[in-house]
Design goal:
This protein is of the alpha+beta class and 70 residues long. It is 56% helix and 14% strand. The chain has a two-stranded antiparallel sheet with strand order 1-2.
Length: 70
């Protein structure tokens, strides 16, 4: 069985109707980092990045990331 972690940033952004550019500007994260997470293409994520995104979206880590068994 293969397991993987996925990011729900695109869902959170859609709910708040914010763009990649807006998240980049408000969090100070690089635009590439935000885009990679948005498209669920990131292979790693820093604790600081998680913290900034959770703070911006007023959510918990489990709202941003989920574990999927395939």
């Amino acid at each position: 069985m293969v397991c993987s972690v996925h990011c729900t940033l695109s869902t959170l952004m859609g709910a708040k109707r914010v763009s990649i550019q807006k998240v980049h500007e408000k969090t100070g994260l690089s635009r590439n980092t935000v885009a990679n997470l948005y498209y669920d293409k990131a292979t790693r994520i820093d604790f600081e990045t998680i913290s900034k995104l959770c703070d911006f979206f007023e959510c918990n880590v489990n709202d941003l990331l989920y574990f999927k068994k395939e």
